[in-house]
Task: structure prediction
Amino acid sequence: MDNPFPADSVGLVEPQREAFDKPLALDCGRTLDAYELVFETYGTLNAERSNAVLVCHALSGSHHAAGYHDNGDRKPGWWEACIGPGKPIDTNRFFVVCVNNLGGCHGSTGPSSTNPETGEPYGPDFPIVTVADWVRSHARLADRLGIDAWAAVIGGSLGGMQAIQWAIDFPDRVRHVVAIAAAPRLSAQNIAFNEVARQAIRSDPDFADGRYQALGAIPRRGLMLARMLGHITYLSDEAMRAKFGRDLRKGKDDFNFNYDVEFEVESYLRHQGRTFVEHFDANTYLLMTKALDYFDPAAQYDDDLSTALEGVSARFLVVSFTSDWRFPPSRSREIVRALLDGNKNVSYAEVEANEGHDAFLKPITHYFSVFSAYMDRVATEVRA
Amino acid sequence: MNELRLDLRAVADWIRPSSRVLDLGCGDGSLLRYLFETREVTGYGLEIDPINVAECVHNRVNVIQSDLDAGLSEFDDDSFDYVVMTQTLQAVRYPDWLLGEMLRVGREGIVTFPNFGHWRLRLYLALRGRMPMSGALHHTWYNTPNIHLCTIKDFEALCERKNIEILERVVLDQSRYERRRSGVLPNLLGEVALYRFQRGAGASM
Result:
């Protein structure tokens, strides 16, 4: 049969699953006695096991970072632009692993999994997990896969934060970190947006204190609102203006003078919200926003990020985008500054881009040339 | 790797092995890479142009994309042995202030710049009555990045005023690729000027 996928795609991929029965102590004080992690891999692990790269997903991402799940699949993984043969994360050279974070809703143990103690879905009883908990759980997966050290841990947004946490918690297991559109911790404004999203979900009558699954309900309106709000923060003012302006929906040339969808931007946000509800779990959304809010590696070190990064041995590439107002360049510069203070190896690119926070998912020329050059250097170093 | 530019080779000769260097406007990172490879120097380059930033990464140089006009606030006092700025002084908005910043974060500064006092430029202006252009200065007046051109005498006067102590000066004649003896009419005969300097006694930067 003809390969129906683009030549620079990893093509057909299949999620894998590993079960762990060694209890995992979580930052919140609770313990997960057993859990499963779902992940995908692309490329081949070399004989020295030196070419493994961990890709960390962002808030609403999953383990499906690249390729397609079946021949009729129209939508590839979320980072198809970056991962594949000849792409910045070149699967001809690297063995790429992407794991669905604990608490997720794409197969790894999370609120919609069955709680062995009750036989019911965990729902709101699933413990609140942190970025460091994810790192600990992924380290066990790395052990299982026979990967002593990652050639690079890479992520955008929340994924970038996870990459930084890896370098702090397992300095011997991370050679390089690529942290894109990330921040060393959330600002009050970031937390405020998360709180509005959480309130939207929690105040939906169908949320039922998080036990909606047992009732066969979905808090659609709340989750949709949370996603619509999120989307506004992912795009820049310029990007919205370019994409929608004040255009009215097709076929319309006048106002309705009512509250139906009229502007294209309204239509877009409602569409994004509605489709999101079909494949994402509200309790997971709540957990992910909490993991973001709690992320603050400097907190244990008198709020001094450079002290937090003192023991790091990884080399860093930090990338930000000029129109990202969720995690603007100034936030990435805080990371860079802390690394400079500690005489760490770091390069920093501030990419001119109109796409806002979402730019990290887009094939922007300067971004990709720096990213590719960096990964080429990583590959040479690990003889990939 | 390509042959290192003449003025960069001269700069490299000034830098002690195993020292820490900050290179302002580091271009494609050639100087830093040369210094890493030949002298075990560590450090960072600052560069604003995105194509150069990618080239630096390609050259395995630590590069921080930044605008020199915003200063060096990311760097602590005395955090480098040398702060180098080659062929960039004339393109920054506040050269006098940046010289102070160089000596705040570095123990020594090194700059190179095209000498606007060179006889050929003087002759160009005198005879043609138009803004001089040359190999080192090949831009027209309206689109040049070189907004603060100066002569050797101008630079030394500024150092005097800012209490900057000049440790060494070399003058190059780029067209003939030879190092000129500094003593003989440098401001007239030198096409490119190189200086190594430090804070003068009692100066605070």
